[in-house]
Structures are given as structure tokens and as C-alpha cells.
């Protein structure tokens, strides 16, 4: 199955009156999306269009799709803000129905933000991979990156497969026993393999954190609470080192439970949303 990501074109903050465009996606962040997903969809709209670096080339190469959400009628004040903030969710609402591709909604930063009508407050399990995913810096030519992606598709597929295994094991056993799970060592090996081939091919790479918000149903909570397994876990979570890669950077996995706003159209999926942050360090 192919992997698809629906991303926001940038970081947009709601203000008491209107919105603030903090920034658009960086070239490095675009390289991250393109490398780790088969399909990259970044919606735009006909009210306020947020462009991307190298946008024309990215679309021409097939690396990125930019569907446009069309709004009709007159928009003022918060109506404009709500429309702009809803574009990612509007497109994602339809794409997550497609079972031929594993679609995820993805944002930058520490917390997901979803507009009214698309958000749902619920308990989740959050898995954070810190300093884990190698990404070539933005000065790498897009066609070179796509060629590398094709040549190393086995390593990239392995990473996604081991991430899926880890998510499933977290959902089925969110407790300290996770430390002994084979999924941890398998994931560490796949990250190390990908890190090796990436640094072997590219002169400069950086690191990205990756966080996944996983569905935790009421049934999961009641079963875990009855056994006592999830009570302590909900209170403390856990952090484990999974590999030491690329010299000084330590890769860790952190698992915790929390209540947060999630993407309601994905409420029946195991993966509700993804987040990422780029590390400032550049490895040469």
C-alpha cells in the first residue's frame, strides 16, 4: 500500500481578529515530506494562496500535488480565517476514505490544530521519535532526491512497516513491557540503515522528529484499567533510547497518553495525525 500525507502549506496562527501567517513550509520540510511519503498533497485555496519554495518545479516533477479548495460567496473577518484553516481538513476528509492509500494528516509543531467541525476531543496515545529521521538539506536537487527515493524504496518501506508494527504494539500493550518488544529493535535497525544510506549519498543531512497520535478507544481504556496496565502508564508514560546514530545525536522513543483535539474524520483509523519538527543541527 502506498503512503500519502496531507500537509499544511505553513504554520498559520489564529488571532482575535484574523490570522497570522507565521511562515510557509521550508525547503527542508518539503524534502522531508517528499522523501518519506509516496504521495504529498498540500492544499491551497482561492481566497489567500500560500505558495511554496520551488513550487512550480515540485508540481512539474510530480513530487507534490496542490489541489485548490474553492470557496464561493463573500468572506469577511473570521470567515476568511476559518476558510484558510479548514483547507487541509476539507481535502483530508475525502482522502482518508481512500483505502488504497494509507493517508495521514500532518502538521508542523508540537500540537495538531483542527478547525471547528473537524476536531474531536479524545484520549490518545502519542508516540514521539526524537532525532530519528535523516533528511537531505534543501539545496539537494528535487530530481536527485526522487531518484534516491526510488533506489532506496526498500529501506523506506521497511521504516514505515516497522513504524506500523510499533504503533500496533503500543496500542495493544501500552506499558513498560514495550521495552522488550521486537518492534523497538526492528525500528532502530531500519532507522540506522536509512541513516547510513542517506549520509552515504548526500553531503549534508538534518534530523527530523516524528510524532504520531494513535487512536485509543474507550474499550482499550476499560480493558487496560481493569488489568491495571494503563493506569500507571497514563500517569507516567515512558522514554526509551532506541539507537545511537549519526554520532552525537541520540534517537529516542517516548510513549505517553493524553487528551487532545484530534482529526474527527479519521476517528476510526489507528493513526489520527502526525507532527514533525526539524532539528537545527546539520550533519556534514
Structural descriptors:
284 residues, alpha/beta, 8-stranded mixed sheet, two-stranded antiparallel sheet, disordered C terminus
Beta content: 25-35%
- Approximate shape: globular
- Provide the spatial order of strands within the biggest beta sheet: 4-1-7-12-9-8-11-10
Largest sheet: 8 strands, mixed
- N-to-C series of helices and strands: EEEHEEHEHEEHHHEHHEEE
For the terminal residues, how far apart are their CA atoms? Answer: 34 Å
Number of strands: 12
Contiguous helical run count: 8
Question: How many domains is the backbone divided into?
Answer: 1
Low-confidence segments: 221-228, 244-249, 280-284
**What is the radius of gyration?**
19 Å
Oligomer description? single chain
Please tell me the overall pLDDT: 82
- Helix and strand composition category: alpha/beta
State the helicity in percent bands: 25-40%
Explain the layout of strands and helices:
Blueprint (H helix, E strand, L loop, with lengths): L1 E6 L2 E5 L4 E6 L2 H10 L2 E3 L2 E2 L9 H6 L7 E2 L8 H18 L5 E8 L10 E18 L5 H10 L1 H20 L9 H20 L3 E11 L2 H10 L1 H8 L1 E7 L5 E14 L7 E13 L1
Parallel strand pairs: 1-4, 1-7, 5-6, 7-12
Antiparallel strand pairs: 2-3, 8-9, 8-11, 9-12, 10-11
Helix pairs in contact: 1-4, 5-6
Amino acid at each position: 500500500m502506498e503512503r500519502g500525507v496531507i500537509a499544511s502549506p505553513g504554520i498559520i496562527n489564529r488571532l482575535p481578529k484574523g490570522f497570522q501567517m507565521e511562515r510557509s513550509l521550508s525547503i527542508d520540510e518539503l524534502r522531508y515530506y517528499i522523501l518519506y511519503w509516496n504521495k504529498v498533497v498540500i492544499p491551497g485555496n482561492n481566497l489567500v494562496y500560500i505558495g511554496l519554495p520551488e513550487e512550480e518545479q515540485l508540481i512539474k516533477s510530480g513530487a507534490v500535488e496542490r489541489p485548490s479548495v474553492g470557496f464561493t460567496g463573500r468572506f469577511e473577518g473570521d470567515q476568511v480565517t476559518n476558510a484558510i484553516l479548514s483547507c487541509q481538513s476539507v481535502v483530508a476528509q475525502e482522502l482518508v476514505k481512500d483505502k488504497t492509500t494509507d493517508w495521514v494528516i500532518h502538521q508542523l509543531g508540537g500540537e495538531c490544530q483542527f478547525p471547528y467541525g473537524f476536531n474531536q476531543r479524545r484520549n490518545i496515545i502519542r508516540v514521539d521519535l526524537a532525532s530519528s529521521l535523516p533528511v537531505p538539506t534543501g539545496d539537494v536537487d528535487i530530481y536527485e532526491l526522487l531518484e534516491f527515493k526510488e533506489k532506496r524504496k526498500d529501506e523506506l518501506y521497511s521504516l514505515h512497516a516497522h513504524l506500523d508494527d510499533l504503533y500496533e504494539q503500543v496500542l495493544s500493550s501500552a506499558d513498560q513491557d514495550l521495552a522488550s518488544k521486537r518492534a523497538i529493535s526492528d525500528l532502530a535497525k531500519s532507522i540506522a540503515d536509512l541513516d547510513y544510506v542517506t549520509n552515504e549519498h548526500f553531503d549534508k543531512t538534518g534530523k527530523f522528529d516524528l510524532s504520531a497520535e494513535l487512536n485509543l478507544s474507550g474499550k482499550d481504556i476499560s480493558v487496560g484499567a481493569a488489568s491495571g496496565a494503563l493506569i500507571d502508564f497514563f500517569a507516567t508514560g515512558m522514554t526509551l533510547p532506541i539507537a545511537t546514530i549519526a554520532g552525537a545525536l541520540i534517537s529516542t522513543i517516548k510513549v505517553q497518553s493524553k487528551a487532545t483535539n484530534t482529526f474527527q474524520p479519521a476517528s476510526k483509523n489507528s493513526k489520527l495525525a502526525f507532527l514533525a519538527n526539524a532539528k537545527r543541527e546539520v550533519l556534514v
